[in-house]
């Protein structure tokens, strides 16, 4: 018989494994985004003028998002048919391998146009991996959780994102000390990428000992195999849910990728002349605030519901988005820190409850595909080209006002999308409740 419940020790192992593994994945992903605006625009894109090189460099960041749906389709399909755990092992190895190889790519001056081609190829592999990682990680954690603590358990893999940003920013700041000035451009930036191979080994060892989700084991026991075409079933029955859920994610993603996508770091250094290491440490501070508020938001959502937590969180995020560039534009390090810490808070309170909300949004038989695809589409809408759009707006207008408007509109879209969804906190997740899970998604539909 399948294990419909998990022991406390198993639950702790799952949360630790998904959090640490996701942190390593996001370390790899965010590392590229940070270096894109600080290094790649100078050494990987030939003789383009500085403004165009920056835009092209950020385009390479966004390009990977276009391949997230492919990773989500593959991972969601195999997670629904064969389990969450095996998908997490594959995505970890793919992400880590691509990141390590990025650290070995020669510059444009050495191999010419092959340099950006290789860079983009490895970035695409990162995008496929990221698209497949998130859905399986959050489901493994949430489906192991007690009903009253799904938000808290789901906040574990959610906290992996700010933890990855903290690790990547911290490593880059450390290498800025070890290899200052031109040495950072020559070789210092490569060390954090090469370190990925060690982190992947640690993550692989941790994830090997994790048990499969009890919900999936029950699905496998009842049907022998999962739904044969979960993707088709998803879009046949839940396309509106996927789209609205993606807009919720996008409302957080546009604002988040101002720092996770490397734009604020690049802007503060190249446009305002702030010292690179000081900016990276401020981003690390934002990551800590983001991490802590993510965990708190996940827990509070267990008490007041995902919907209320989201709606309140988007209001806080709007304040952070409105204040971001006016504070950064002072050119004063202390106000940069205030902006970063406030932004980290705004991101966390619209992020911690996300895993539990997505898990409760879809029926068990298509949950892997539903969470992965919704997340991937939301990433494209809300994160893929946010740094590129910001760079283009500033270059065209000479002002950050348009970027602030962009962030506020995205936040409003996320708020309205969440307002359209009914709160489903605590809904049963097992396959015996498929009928209940398949209805009651929208507030205006009975």
Automatic annotation (TrEMBL):
Record key words, sorted: Cell membrane, Membrane, Transmembrane, Transmembrane helix, Transport
Principal localisation: membrane
Membrane-related topology note: Multi-pass membrane protein
InterPro entries (alphabetical): MFS, MFS_dom, MFS_trans_sf, Sugar_transporter_CS
PROSITE patterns in the cross-refs: MFS, SUGAR_TRANSPORT_1, SUGAR_TRANSPORT_2
Stretches assigned to the Major facilitator superfamily (MFS) profile domain: 14-426
CDD domains reported for this sequence: MFS_ShiA_like (cd17369)
Cited PANTHER family: SHIKIMATE TRANSPORTER
Name listed for the protein in its UniProt record: MFS transporter
Organism, as annotated: Corynebacterium suedekumii
């Amino acid at each position: 018989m399948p294990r419909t419940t998990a022991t406390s020790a198993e639950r702790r192992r799952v949360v630790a494994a998904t959090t640490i593994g996701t942190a390593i994945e996001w370390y790899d992903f965010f590392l590229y985004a940070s270096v894109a605006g600080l290094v790649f625009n100078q050494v990987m894109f030939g003789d383009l003028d500085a403004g165009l090189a920056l835009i092209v460099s950020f385009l390479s960041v966004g390009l990977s998002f276009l391949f997230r749906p492919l990773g989500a389709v593959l991972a969601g399909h195999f997670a629904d048919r064969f389990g969450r755990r095996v998908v997490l092992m594959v995505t970890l190895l793919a992400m880590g391998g691509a990141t390590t190889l990025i650290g070995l790519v020669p510059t444009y001056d050495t191999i010419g146009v092959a340099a950006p081609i290789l860079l983009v190829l490895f970035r695409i592999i990162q995008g496929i991996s990221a698209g497949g990682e998130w859905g399986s990680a959050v489901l493994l954690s949430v489906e192991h959780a007690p009903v009253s603590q799904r938000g808290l358990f789901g906040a574990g893999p959610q906290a992996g994102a700010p933890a990855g940003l903290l690790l990547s920013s911290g490593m880059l700041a450390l290498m800025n000390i070890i290899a200052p000035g031109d040495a950072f451009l020559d070789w210092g930036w490569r060390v954090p990428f090469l370190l990925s191979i060690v982190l992947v080994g640690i993550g692989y060892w941790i994830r090997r000992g994790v048990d499969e989700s009890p919900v999936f084991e029950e699905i496998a026991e009842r049907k022998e195999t999962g739904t044969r075409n979960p993707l088709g079933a998803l879009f046949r029955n839940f396309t509106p849910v996927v789209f609205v859920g993606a807009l919720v994610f996008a409302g957080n993603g546009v604002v988040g990728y101002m720092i996770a996508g490397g734009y604020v770091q690049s802007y503060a250094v190249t446009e305002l002349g702030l010292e690179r290491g000081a900016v990276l440490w401020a981003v690390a501070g934002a990551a800590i605030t983001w991490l802590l508020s993510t965990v708190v938001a996940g827990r509070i959502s267990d008490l007041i519901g995902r919907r209320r937590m989201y709606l309140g969180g988007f209001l806080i995020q709007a304040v952070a988005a409105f204040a971001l560039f006016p504070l950064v534009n002072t050119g004063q390090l202390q106000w940069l820190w205030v902006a970063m810490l406030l932004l980290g808070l705004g991101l966390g309170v619209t992020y911690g409850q996300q895993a539990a909300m997505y898990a409760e949004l879809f029926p068990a038989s298509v949950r892997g595909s539903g969470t992965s695809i919704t997340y991937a589409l939301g990433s494209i809408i809300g994160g893929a080209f946010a740094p590129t759009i910001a760079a283009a707006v500033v270059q065209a207008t000479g002002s950050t006002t348009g970027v602030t408007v962009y962030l506020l509109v995205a936040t409003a879209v996320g708020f309205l999308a969440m307002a359209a969804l009914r709160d489903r906190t605590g809904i049963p997740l097992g396959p015996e409740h498929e009928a209940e899970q398949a209805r009651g998604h929208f507030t205006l539909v009975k």
